[in-house]
Structure formats: structure tokens, C-alpha cells
């Protein structure tokens, strides 16, 4: 959500005539903050402190702070860092260019925080990070009240976007070359609550299924309490909805779930996973887990380990509980000592890493279709492998057999997996185990590269096979 908001901020500023600073000194610096992460405030004020002397040396430079922490801290930001020019909240992202202009014109810091959504953010211009895939917001805010979470107080009640608007945005992305879309919401499967249609999310998935050229549909995040069978059916019956599900567990202990005010219990959670796997046998399921919630006993933690063992998650995002001022859990007694949380966290990581390695090992020898991304693995310069995501969202590093066609970001390759690690798969295929499908997204990548180099695009040949690739970055090939 935060990354997508940053894409909007970049789009708004470009629309207002600014251009991205490539190197050297930026005239405008925008911090899009997230209050969910630990120490967000320390990091923000540390960064602002470092910028103070930079701004002094560059008269006219402007600094803006937005996002959840700005919504929370408001004027405190200007008190602690009076060299900041603009503070804006989560509900008025679209005001940023006007606020920067007003701050410049009046030579005075501008603070504007709204209590509820002004314009649905998706109607704002967006500068997308990748041409081959895009985020599409279906709702913002959340009607739940998880006791550890700051989101409801900073993002407000759930606001749902109309299905027609969502589908038009998806269509526009596809027309621009995207072949993958991720539907975004704090709680996607309660989508429709605002306009009284409980089946709206399943219908939305099915509607995405009939958008021609859209090859991969994902979504994040659902909530186990509201996850209904109609969504599982829609996933199973819509070929372009990917066999992947992110289902936040948070804790395997029913007592802790109750204290977290999460209304499902571990049995229901595991039941959902069973149903998903029954309908979509190869679904990769990921999760979020918080370790060390106030009052969590060793027995409670063991219950989490037991659920993790049974659930066989492909990936887990694991967090050590830490207080978020302003949340009910921050006031609970029995906050656990750091050493206890750390020790449990390490046990959980060891278990999940083992499971992830075992699950990935089952992929060795199978064929996977990989959507090639522009990001390369850390060791790409040594291994000369390219990277991408499989249909079930596993990270795959693959090499191109000598003499074989090199894919562009956005193209699809089919490779046989040769090795597995807990966090990625490796494919060093023989020529017969490798094929490339050039896609519209790869053509769009070529065009975007040509445009960023200032070279007029030649357009692209249908199928792409003979398209001239302009401005193409050199991609490593296995020598
Ligand atoms: S459902 Fe998610 S966003 Fe909503 S309160 Fe709970 S953790 Fe926060």
C-alpha cells in the first residue's frame, strides 16, 4: 500500500512538471512514512536531521513529509524539524503539489491533515514502478480493530471503490502493457461492505478473469475471519487468478488471537487452508506472524509453532511484537522482555526456514513459468542469472542456456527448476528445458526504455519476435 502511494506521489509531482533527480542534488525530497514498522519515527527524524545542513547549503530546496507518521505526528514534525516545508496526511495525498507551491509562495511551512478521504487516491496520476505489473487499490482503511494495529486510526474506516472504476484502471494498465495486476486493500475480502454486496470481491476476481491480455491476478491482503468459500471458488475457477494466497495468521494461540481482537481461531484458519488446497492443490500460501504479543505464554507460542508446522507456509513474514503508541495492545499488562521475544522469534524462524526449504525442494524437477522482472538477485553479477516470479509467486533465479533467446523484463520463460533454497528457486536449464514467450509487457518494457533514453519508440511488432529493441539495458547471460 505504501509503495503504491509512493507511485502516486511520484506521478503527481511529474504531472506538476517536476522530473526525477537522477544524481546529485534533489530540489524536492518527499518522505512517505509508514507507522506500522518499528522505529519509524526515529528513522524519520534521523533522516530529517541529516537533511537540515543539506537544505541550508541549497536555498530553495523543499522537504515534504507524508503518510501514516505524518497523519499521527502532525505539528510535532514541524516542531521537531522546523526546516520541513510540507506535512500532509494519508487522506490528502493529492494536495502535495499545491502544498509545495503554497509553501514556496508564502515562504511558510504548510500543514494539512484531513480526517477522512478527500479523493479516492486511485484517481490521482501514478508513476508506476514497473510496466509489466501494477498495483490497483480496491479499498482503503479498515473496519477491524486489531489491538496491535495503528492502521484504523491513521487510514480510517474502509472505503470501497466502485467495481467499474477498478476494472477500468485494470484495463488501462493492461492497455499500457501490464500483464500482471495485484488488487490491494487492507482487508480485501470485506470489499463491498460499503455498497452492500458481500460477494463483491469474488465477483471482482471473476471480472478480472475476462480482461483480455491480463495473465496474472493477485491480491493482498485477505482476513481469515471474512474469507468465504465464494472467493476460493472464484480463485479456483478463474484461470488468470494465480495459485497463491497471503493469509495472515498473526498467532496460533486462540487466547492470543482473542487478545489481538482477531475474530477467527486457529481451527478456522487451518480449515481455510485445507479448503484452498482442496480446490487449488498447488497453491503457495504465505502469512504474517507476530511473536511476543503481550501475555503470550510459552504454551501460546507453542500453539503458533504447531499451526506453522501444520500450515506448511511457503513464506512467512515474521515480526517481533513492539508497542505502537496509540494502540490498545500498547496499554496491556504483561509486555514481554525483549530476550524472551527474541528467543521465540529465532525458534519460529528456524522452523519456518526448514519448512520453506522443504516446500521449495518439492519444486526441483518441475517446470515453472516465470515472469521476468527488472530486479536481479544480489549475486547476479557472479551467477549471470536473471530473476522473476513463478505463477505461485516464488522467486526464481534462472540462467539462459548458451545461444538461447534472452528475455526482456515482462517476458515469460518456462524453465525446469534445478535447485532450491528456503527463499528462492534456481533453474540452470538445458536448452530443451528452456523457452521464452515474448509478451506485450516485454514490448512495453522496450518502449519505456526507449522513452527514458529519449529515443522515439519504434512501436512493437505483434508477438514481439522481430521488434527492434531500443535502449535495452544489457542483461547478463550465462557464459
Ligand atoms: S485487519 Fe489488518 S489493517 Fe485492519 S486492524 Fe487488523 S491488522 Fe490492522
From TrEMBL:
Catalytic activity: N(6)-dimethylallyladenosine(37) in tRNA + (sulfur carrier)-SH + AH2 + 2 S-adenosyl-L-methionine = 2-methylsulfanyl-N(6)-dimethylallyladenosine(37) in tRNA + (sulfur carrier)-H + 5'-deoxyadenosine + L-methionine + A + S-adenosyl-L-homocysteine + 2 H(+)
Keyword Oxidoreductase: no
Cofactor needs: [4Fe-4S] cluster
Coiled-coil blocks: none
Residues reported to bind [4Fe-4S] cluster: 142, 146, 149
TRAM domain span: 361-431
Domain MTTase N-terminal: 1-105
Molecular-function GO terms, alphabetical: 4 iron, 4 sulfur cluster binding; metal ion binding; tRNA-2-methylthio-N(6)-dimethylallyladenosine(37) synthase activity
Gene Ontology CC terms: cytosol
Domain of life: Bacteria
Compositionally biased region (Low complexity): 456-465
Cofactor-binding details, from the entry: Binds 2 [4Fe-4S] clusters. One cluster is coordinated with 3 cysteines and an exchangeable S-adenosyl-L-methionine.
Key words, A-Z: 4Fe-4S, Cytoplasm, Iron, Iron-sulfur, Metal-binding, S-adenosyl-L-methionine, Transferase, tRNA processing
EC number(s) from the headed UniProt entry: 2.8.4.3
Primary site of residence: cytoplasm
Pfam families linked to this entry: Radical_SAM, UPF0004
Region (Disordered): 441-479
Location of the Radical SAM core domain: 128-358
Enzyme class: transferase
Subcellular location: Cytoplasm
Biological role: Catalyzes the methylthiolation of N6-(dimethylallyl)adenosine (i(6)A), leading to the formation of 2-methylthio-N6-(dimethylallyl)adenosine (ms(2)i(6)A) at position 37 in tRNAs that read codons beginning with uridine.
Assembly and interaction partners: Monomer.
Family named by the database record: Belongs to the methylthiotransferase family. MiaB subfamily.
UniProt-recorded name of the protein: tRNA-2-methylthio-N(6)-dimethylallyladenosine synthase
Amino acid at each position: 500500500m505504501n509503495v503504491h502511494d509512493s507511485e502516486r506521489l511520484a506521478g503527481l509531482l511529474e504531472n506538476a512538471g517536476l522530473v526525477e533527480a537522477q544524481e546529485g542534488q534533489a530540489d524536492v525530497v518527499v518522505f512517505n512514512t509508514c507507522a506500522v514498522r518499528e522505529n519509524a519515527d526515529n528513522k524519520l527524524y534521523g533522516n530529517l536531521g541529516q537533511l537540515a545542513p543539506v537544505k541550508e547549503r541549497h536555498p530553495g530546496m523543499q522537504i515534504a513529509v507524508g503518510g501514516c507518521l505524518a497523519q499521527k505526528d502532525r505539528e510535532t514534525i514541524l516542531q521537531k524539524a522546523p526546516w520541513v516545508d510540507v506535512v500532509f496526511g494519508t487522506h490528502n495525498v493529492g494536495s502535495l503539489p499545491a502544498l509545495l507551491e503554497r509553501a514556496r509562495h508564502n515562504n511558510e511551512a504548510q500543514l494539512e491533515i484531513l480526517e477522512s478521504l478527500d479523493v479516492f487516491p486511485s484517481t490521482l496520476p501514478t508513476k508506476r514502478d514497473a510496466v509489466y505489473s501494477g498495483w490497483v487499490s480496491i479499498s482503503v482503511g479498515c473496519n477491524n480493530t486489531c489491538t496491535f494495529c495503528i492502521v484504523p486510526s491513521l487510514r480510517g474506516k474502509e472505503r470501497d471503490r466502485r467495481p467499474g472504476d477498478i476494472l477500468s484502471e485494470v484495463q488501462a494498465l493492461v492497455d499500457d502493457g501490464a500483464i500482471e495486476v495485484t488488487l490491494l486493500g487492507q482487508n480485501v475480502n470485506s470489499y463491498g461492505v460499503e455498497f452492500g454486496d458481500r460477494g463483491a470481491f469474488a465477483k471482482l476476481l471473476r471480472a478480472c478473469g475476462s480482461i483480455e491480455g491480463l495473465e496474472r491476478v493477485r491480491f493482498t491482503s485477505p482476513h481469515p475471519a471474512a474469507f468465504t468459500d465464494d472467493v476460493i471458488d472464484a480463485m479456483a475457477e478463474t484461470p488468470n487468478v494465480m495459485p497463491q494466497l497471503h493469509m495472515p495468521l498473526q498467532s496460533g494461540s486462540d487466547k492470543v488471537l482473542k487478545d489481538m481482537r482477531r475474530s477467527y481461531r486457529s481451527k478456522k484458519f487451518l480449515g481455510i487452508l485445507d479448503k484452498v488446497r482442496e480446490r487449488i492443490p498447488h497453491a503457495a500460501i504465505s502469512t504474517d506472524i507476530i511473536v511476543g504479543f503481550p501475555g503470550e505464554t510459552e504454551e501460546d507460542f507453542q500453539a503458533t509453532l504447531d499451526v506453522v508446522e501444520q500450515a506448511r507456509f511457503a513464506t512467512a513474514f515474521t515480526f517481533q511484537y513492539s508497542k505502537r503508541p496509540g494502540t490498545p495492545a500498547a496499554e496491556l499488562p504483561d509486555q514481554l522482555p525483549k530476550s524472551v521475544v527474541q528467543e521465540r522469534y529465532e525458534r519460529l524462524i528456524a522452523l519456518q526456514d526448514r519448512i520453506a526449504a522443504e516446500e521449495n525442494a518439492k519444486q526441483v524437477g518441475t517446470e515453472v513459468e516465470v515472469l521476468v522482472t527488472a530486479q536481479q538477485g544480489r549475486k547476479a553479477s557472479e551467477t549471470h542469472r536473471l530473476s522473476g516470479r513463478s505463477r505461485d509467486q516464488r522467486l526464481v533465479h534462472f540462467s539462459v542456456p548458451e545461444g538461447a533467446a534472452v528475455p526482456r523484463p515482462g517476458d515469460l520463460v518456462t524453465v525446469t527448476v534445478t535447485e532450491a533454497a528456503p527463499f528462492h528457486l534456481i533453474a540452470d536449464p538445458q536448452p530443451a528445458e528452456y523457452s521464452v514467450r515474448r509478451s506485450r509487457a516485454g514490448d512495453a518494457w522496450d518502449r519505456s526504455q526507449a522513452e527514458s533514453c529519449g529515443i522515439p519508440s519504434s512501436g512493437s511488432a505483434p508477438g514481439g519476435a522481430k521488434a527492434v529493441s531500443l535502449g535495452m539495458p544489457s542483461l547478463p547471460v550465462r557464459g
